[in-house]
Amino acid sequence: MDAALALIGEDLKNVELQFKKDLQSDVPLIRKVGEYVLSSGGKRIRPALVLLAARLCGYEGSRSVPLASVVEFIHTATLLHDDVVDNANLRRGLASANTLWGNEASVLVGDFLFSKSFSLMVADGDLGILKVLADATTMIAEGEVLQLVCTSDLEITVERYIEVVRSKTAILLSAACEVGAILGGVDPELRQAVADYGMDLGIAFQLMDDTLDYTASEEQFGKSIGHDLEEGKITLPLIHTLKQCSDQERDFIAGVVEKDLLSDEDFGQVLALVQRYGGIEHTVASAGEHVALCKKHLEKFPASAAREALAELADYVVTRVK
Predict the structure, then answer these.
(1) Is residue 294's pLDDT more than 90?
(2) Which of 103, 109, 164, 215 is deepest in the core (most CB within 10 A)?
(3) Is the CB of residue 91 less than 8 Å from the CB of residue 224?
(4) Spatial contact of 45 and 313, defined as CB atoms under 8 Å apart
(5) How far apart are CA 93 and CA 259, in angstroms?
(6) Is the separation of the CB atoms in 322 and 216 below 8 Å?
């Protein structure tokens, strides 16, 4: 992340100021919940992608900062809704908003952030950017429903799982990059290349998240470990394990997935199977393949500090521990 921070550090500080400005509301609870979530130590990868993609595509104007704020608003809205759907009590190592203010406040403030995002996009006045982010938001909602449909489905294929990842997570990273490309006014081929970079980066990011849910410490990860398994989310480490394990082991996993509460002993036994059949290594390798694709997409652009920073950002995704 060092190259990215060196290049856009000042702009990222301005994005933080833009958050505060965009959170203005006559309803104090909106500002309170919004500031709590936005200031709780997020990685700011999506705003960074808007800023870096804009630089990669030759844009030097002032619209990238407010649009980077819009993208983070959309992301924050999805987090507020996700934590309610997932019954999560931790987010970034802190109590989740729904734990502190309840599900109703989390959902409604999330709705405010979505609505405010669209107001800000309309104020920007670029229908191309509005379409990209509106389409992405629609796809995220579809991805959430698709994930719900796939809950506890031990027959889920890798292809189906990656479809969930593309819709639920990667599309917003792709859209963030595409916004930067639109600002830069590059031709359709380059615009597609930078959008594809964001999509592969998003897939790699989620796959590493899947491994961290099994292997990280709660202090590092900032979320409860084993929460995916407890919620019946069959992610790639487990999909790979289910393809390799015996019928008896598969029946054991099915029994754990069906339980409402996940005990430490059950999680430990499933983790042992995931490790025995190489589920973590397989997922990390798959993430690495998507990072390699990220760098391939960047080759369409001439060498620059922005291209180097985006390549470094891709490498960071597969080495992060939180």
Answers:
(1) yes
(2) 109
(3) no
(4) yes
(5) 25
(6) yes
Q: Is the pLDDT of residue 197 over 60?
A: yes
- Under a CB-based contact definition with an 8 Å cutoff, are residues 177 and 133 in contact? no
How far apart (Å, rounded) are the C-alpha atoms in residues 43 and 222?
A: 12
Burial of 281 (0-12, 13-18, 19+ CB in 10 A): middle
Rg (CA), the chain: 20
Residues whose CB is less than 8 angstroms from the CB of residue 6 and which lie 6 or more positions away in sequence, other chains included: 309
What contacts 19, CB < 8 A, 6 or more positions away? 34, 35, 38, 69, 72, 73
Structure tokens at 165: 């990842």
CB count in 10 Å sphere of residue 214: 21
| CA gap 129, 179 in Å, rounded | 6
Rounded distance between C-alpha atoms, residue 181 and residue 191, angstroms: 5
Q: What is the 3 state secondary structure string of 153-217?
A: CCCCCHHHHHHHHHHHHHHHHHHHHHHHHHHHCCCHHHHHHHHHHHHHHHHHHHHHHHHHHHHCC
Q: How far is Cα of residue 97 from the mean position of the Cα atoms in its chain?
A: 18
Which DSSP helix (H) or strand (E) runs through 94? strand 94-95
Identify the sign of the CA torsion 150, 152, 153, 159: positive
Residues 190 and 188: their CA atoms lie apart, in Å, by 6
The answer to whether 51 and 11 are in contact (CB under 8 A) is yes
Q: Which residue has the tokens 């291209």?
A: 307
Amino acid 19 reads F
CA angle 13, 18, 23 (to 5 degrees): 135
CA distance 6 to 11: 10
- Confidence band of 321 (pLDDT split at 50, 70, 90): low
Among residues 55, 93, 165, which one has the least CA distance to residue 321? 93
**Which is more confidently placed, 96 or 250?**
250
Among all chains, which residue has been given the structure tokens 């990868």?
45
